[in-house]
Design a protein that fits this description.
The protein has 635 residues and is α+β, with helices and mostly antiparallel strands. It contains 16 helices and 35 strands. The chain folds into two domains: 275 residues, Beta-galactosidase, Chain A, domain 5, CATH 2.70.98.10; 247 residues, Alpha-Beta Barrel (TIM Barrel).
């Protein structure tokens, strides 16, 4: 049936005089645009095979209809473009984005214009809407008609969005659900599916997300009717707002980019398309503050009781011993430690070359969380006062928690925080938050964001530990594909609660390389590190703070992931097994031009490691235990 649908759309394009095409520079990905009976549509094909069948485009604004009754005013010539940029909180350091661009200018019955801009690169498609008249007329976008129509047989890996105001202390949505994996397209979610959303049609994968959020638009999800394989843009729940402010996009000149990465799993893992189309970075007055690294963090293992001055000194000392750059002090520090002693802690940490990060409640009546500090960031004036104080205290960054969803006003709140923090030399980590959608490029002081069912959930309930391996094997292909992710990984010894960890220590160590975060907060304590072999300690002390390049080695969403990351003249290959049964992987080390290789993996006993040299001139055959993993360092 899918072949019929796509062939029908192709035949319609053939006979339609207004059909237009733009292809990727390597000619493998092709986008067709058409205007049929006044309605705009597009298709996407990869190497001549359909990926997205004829799907609707369009916008409904309070001052105009831009989805029907349209006429094609003009079509630009295809232009080739490119961008060179750098990031220290992404899968690559130096990034070269090349694309072919074509713009379709449409006018509605009232003569008002809307452009649809397509940029097609070798790894996918990005498009957005542009209103030449500008966005300063208070016009509201009531609906976006963008669709992604897949074959009915398409398989999906999708995360449902939690209902607004549900969950602990009414803190949802915070993008912390499990993925529905390898499910035939058509399953229904009342609240929609969050980004990045992964699809497989035939042998081709497509990863959908959005990028380029400037505060004028709301965050969106994908939604489909029951049993339908057509997914459309869905606006957030009316409760997902900065209290008393607006939900819907307003004063929009450019909409966010709709991003579709297309290809094999290698393309998904190695693509940077989600940041390629993000707004280029703001100019910082002090670029020296952008220091990626790693952090010690007491709360993940010891929870609220650990927020004392003496305990934070111990974690500063742990960070110093491990060559980690930061120590995070979590909730209620203002009441349990106080500003004066936090200043004293920051002074002590400075002597150890460790920076202090402080937790904040995003505040506002969108949830009922009691943790403090709160009500200190709600206005520009509030932030100016608090961020100035932190800067004077020598604090390096803030972790801000428990936001209220994806409404336009809440998105604007994120943007305002990032701008004000940058002006005061502060790094930012968002928790209980939305997907950052490329913000780490636009605002380089955004080092990481949670937006994932992270390690804290594993420490709360046994079911979280039971699902950890499978869940972690999903994340490189979805949540962590483009944006830095504060999963807070790597517990190497034991969780000091009733929860029994089901992953091996080799698995946990592998996540230190596998997961990408501008600041990686580790879930290990000073006591836990005493049970770790010296060669593992040395590995972590010398682990790079950011990566130069990435290569997909092997894997499948939810089952296993083997990924190589480069720093300088070294490659670090990390592998995890998301299933209970052992799995062997073969890695061609010649591809990495290595002269020596060292393997750290699971030992014979529980919670143990083993280290060995591996011949660099032949394929490495590594057997991962069930829920196990490894790291391989190549020079």
């Amino acid at each position: 049936m899918y072949k019929y649908i796509f062939l029908l759309s192709i035949s319609m394009l053939t006979v339609c005089a207004q059909a237009q095409t733009v292809s990727s520079p390597d000619k493998n990905i092709t986008v067709n645009f058409s205007l049929n009976a006044g309605k705009p549509f597009y298709t996407v094909a990869s190497k001549g095979k359909p990926v997205i069948a004829q799907s609707a485009l369009g916008i409904a604004k309070s001052n105009g209809n831009f989805y029907s009754g349209l006429k094609l005013k003009s079509v630009s010539k295809i232009s080739l473009g490119g961008q060179l940029y750098t990031m220290v909180n992404a899968k690559k350091h130096h990034i070269n984005y090349k694309f072919a661009r074509r713009t379709y200018s449409l006018v509605n019955a009232a003569g008002k214009q809307m452009d649809v801009i397509f940029q097609v690169s070798n790894d996918g498609v990005a498009f957005r809407y542009y209103f030449p008249a500008g966005g300063n007329n208070d016009a509201v976008i009531n609906k976006e008609y963008t669709e992604y129509r897949f074959a009915p047989s398409t398989k999906t890996w999708l995360q449902p969005k939690a209902e607004a105001k549900s969950g602990w202390e009414h803190t949802n949505p915070s993008y912390e659900e499990y993925y529905e994996q390898d499910v035939t397209a058509g399953k229904y979610s009342k609240t929609g599916w969050i980004y990045p959303a992964l699809f497989k049609t035939g042998n081709t994968w497509a990863l959908i997300t959005e990028a380029g959020m400037d505060g004028s638009y709301c965050g969106t999800t994908l939604k489909n009717d029951s049993l339908s394989s057509t997914y459309h843009i869905n606006f957030p729940d009316k409760r997902e707002i900065f209290t008393g402010r607006d939900l819907l996009p307003k004063n929009v000149t450019y909409t966010p980019w709709r991003v579709i990465t297309v290809g094999g799993l290698k393309t998904i893992i190695e693509s940077t398309l989600g940041t390629d189309v993000a707004t280029p970075e703001i100019k910082l007055t002090d670029t020296s503050i952008i220091k990626p690294g790693k952090a010690a963090w007491s709360w993940i293992m010891s929870k609220d009781d650990s927020i004392t001055y003496t305990e934070q000194v111990r974690y500063v000392d742990l960070a110093a011993k491990m060559n980690w750059q930061y120590c995070l002090v979590d909730a209620d520090w203002d009441r349990k430690i106080g500003y004066d002693k936090i200043k004293k802690l920051a002074d002590y940490a400075k002597t150890k070359n460790v920076g202090i990060l402080l937790w904040y409640n995003s505040a506002g009546p969108w949830n009922t969380v009691k943790y403090t500090p709160k009500d200190k960031l709600l206005t520009h004036e509030d932030r100016e006062k608090e961020f100035s104080r932190l800067n004077e205290m020598g604090i390096k960054g803030v972790k801000i928690d428990f936001f209220g969803g994806d409404g336009r006003s809440m998105i604007q709140y994120y943007v305002d925080i990032l701008k004000d923090a940058a002006a005061h030399g502060l790094l930012v980590n968002f928790h209980g938050a939305t997907l950052p959608r490329g913000w780490a490029r636009t605002y380089p002081n955004l080092m990481t964001t949670e937006a994932v069912r992270g390690y804290e959930m594993i420490t709360f309930e046994q079911v979280g530990a039971d699902n950890e391996a499978n869940h972690c094997a999903m994340l490189p292909f979805t949540r962590n594909a483009f944006d830095p992710m504060d999963f807070t990984p790597m517990n190497l010894y034991k969780i000091p609660t009733h929860v029994k960890r089901k992953t091996t220590s080799g698995f946990e160590l592998a996540t230190s390389v596998l997961f990408l975060s501008g600041i990686q907060h580790y879930a290990e304590s000073p006591e836990g590190m005493t049970h770790v072999p010296e060669y593992v300690v040395s590995f972590l002390q010398n682990l790079p703070n950011y990566w130069d390049d990435v290569k997909f080695v092997d894997g499948f969403p939810g089952k296993y992931a083997v990924i190589a990351r480069k720093s300088g003249n070294k490659w670090y290959i990390a592998g995890i097994n998301g299933e209970n049964t052992g799995k062997e992987v073969s890695i061609s080390l010649k591809d990495f031009k290595a002269t020596k290789a060292k393997l750290i993996t699971d030992g014979a006993e529980p919670l143990s490691f083993t280290q060995s040299d591996v011949p660099a001139d032949q394929p490495a055959k590594i057997t991962m235990k069930g829920n196990g993993g490894f790291v391989l360092v190549l020079e």
